[in-house]
Amino acid sequence: MSARKFAADKLLWETLGRWKRSSPELDRIQFLKTVPFFDQLSNRQLKRVSDITFERTYQTDELIFEEGQPGAALFLILDGKIAIEVCRETSTTRLAVLEKGAFFGEMALLDDTPRSATARALERTRTLALYRNDLNGLVYRHPRTACRIYRSLATMIGDRLRSTNELVQMKTPADTAGLG
Amino acid sequence: MSNVQDFEEKERERKVRRKVFYLTFATLALIFGGFLLWKLSSLILPIIVGCLLALAFRPVKERFRIRWLPHEIQVLCSFAAIGVVLFFAFNTFRKHIPDEEQKLEFKVRLQYKLNERYRQLVAKSPEGKANAVAALLEKELGPLMDKINQVLTLNAEERNLFLKYAAGYNGKPPIQSKFVDYFRANQTTGKYVIPEETPAGTASPTAPAAPTQPPAAEEGTSLESKFSAWILAPLIFLFLGFDNGQIRRFFISLVPNRYFELSLTVLDRLDDAIGRYLRGTLIECFLVGLTLALGLILLGIPPGIAVAIGVVSGLLNAIPFLGAVIALVIGVSYALIAEDVRPLIPGLNPNDLALYVVILVVIAHVLDDVVFQPFVLGGAVNVHPLVVVIAIIAGSLIMGLWGMLFAIPTVVVVKTAVETFFKELKDYRII
Q: First and final CA of chain A: distance in angstroms?
């Protein structure tokens, strides 16, 4: 870390320290530090991200987004529980249950293709939403911050693709054997 | 089980209470908002102008951001830079706004030149015979010229003032002798159409009515209130410049969760479309103004006057159809009174300046329609010509010239808002 960056971070934390210890801004920044998506960001960069996020609270059973709707934002769970579900004709399949610190809807940061699943709050849940065009705006204002976020996103999508490929490779010999 | 039923019952009651609360609050807000709009109607225009300017200049603020400089200082610096540019533009423009002496001189000159042109137009042949076209023109234009003369003739007070300026008054050198000659010639100009005999004692219907002067105190108060209202425009521009998304966050926080992503998308698309339209219109007006100014300079009109006419015509170009007509009237009016014009383009006859100005205005507006508009606006916001005409008339009825100027941006805002809103409501499967 360069001396200038260190001084800037120190100044930021001193400023934040002057505020109430439990200020929502500080809480939000500390929360963002724990999210793997933003693990490459400095405190100052996390503050920039915090400035463009929206805090939303969902009641039990309330929908955060529905399958098929255009995606516009990534959601991070501040506290509470979320179920990711897929509806197929007569039945609903629960794909995952996400808790504090998890994130979902990240593909919406790339384009507005329809959501592939529905997100439902299983209990009273607080989330932070990061809107796609706000992140695009960050590219002009703070390109380094935006670049790091996009790199995390690319890495994460790459990991998923790799694991999907591995899954397909593991399944393929068995399928081929079955065909034979 | 009873606990669950109790909870559900309470939740149902809460929902009803919430609906009643929202409904009451919305009704009260509407009544209060309507009352404020009615009482503070003079503030609406400065607020709209401030908001539109902030929207138009936002990309400049975003693109020229200096990372190490605090946001507020950057906004203040850009505001100061825009202020300096506007100050110099206004100062240059003000130099060409005529003072009392120049106004009198202008009236005398305009009246003389118009009469001279009219006489040339309807001149009889050396044998004293008038051709059919000249006779027709005389019949049609005679009454109009009488009316123009009635408007341009100096009243007693103005005549005295002109004579004072002619001899040198208020520390100013005497008016050029040719203008004094024009003044004398104007005094002898009679009526072109002899009015029918009116019964004795009946006042002539064309006699100029004594101008009614508003009380000075009343005028001062109205000017003061107008000035204080217009102070809002730069203030709003400044504070919207300081805003780092807080206003949007506040409004988004009021939106129910179900419409959260939808409202973000709609706001963003609206912001983008309106911003692009505003910036496009500003650039288009600038290009039209520049074309006219350069053209007038090439026709031999002094650069200061040419730029002043270009600025006014460029700004008024924002009013479709009417902007071109006003530019034509201003340009031709100046061409009619211009003297000692030496066109920079060889082969042009200075006596036909008015005709060249008409051709120039036509060229500028053809260029605007064929090149500037498609290039700058890209046909992003297409409004039907009938809607444009109705909007301009409605705007002029509601707010005069300002209404005409803002009619089309308002139509564009409403059209874009409705289109975007319905499209997104369908995409989000809400309707």
A: 59
Residues 6 or more apart whose CB falls under 8 angstroms from that of A119 comprise A63, A64, A65, A75, A82, A83, A84, A85, A104, A105
Domain parsing of chain B, residue ranges: 1-39, 100-189, 245-427
What gap in Å lies between CA A1 and CA A7, rounded to an integer? 10
Q: Which of B214-218, B287-291, B312-316 has the lowest mean pLDDT?
A: B214-218
C-alpha distance from A17 to closest chain B C-alpha (Å): 20
Alpha carbon of B29: minimum distance to chain A alpha carbons (Å): 25
Only one residue has tokens 């705007």, namely B395
Architecture of domain A10-170: Sandwich (2.60)
Chain A residues with beta carbon closer than 8 angstroms to that of B253: 54
Please enumerate in sequence order all residues whose Cβ is within 8 A of that of B258, keeping only pairs 6 or more positions apart, or say none.
A63, B430
* C-alpha span between B133 and B140 (Å, rounded): 11
Window 43-72 of B: residues touching A by CB (8 A cutoff) are 62-63, 65, 67
Alpha carbon distance B13, B159 (integer Å) = 82
The residue ranges of every structural domain in chain A are 10-170
CA angle B33, B35, B39 (to 5 degrees): 115
> Considering the entire predicted model, what is its pTM?
0.70
Give the per-residue pLDDT at B225.
63
Which of A51-65, B210-224, B240-254 shows the lowest per-residue confidence on average (mean pLDDT)? B210-224
Q: How far apart are the first and last CA of chain B?
A: 37
The chain B residue lying nearest A125, using CA atoms, is B257
Q: Are strands A82-88 and A91-98 parallel, antiparallel or unpaired?
A: antiparallel
Report the SS3 class of residue A78.
strand
* Best residue of A15, A69, A87 to probe chain B, by most B CBs closer than 10 Å: A69
Please give the mean pLDDT across all residues of chain B: 80
ipTM over 0.85? The verdict is no
Please tell me which residue, A65 or B120, carries the higher pLDDT value.
A65
Q: Which two tokens stand for residue B151?
A: 């408007």
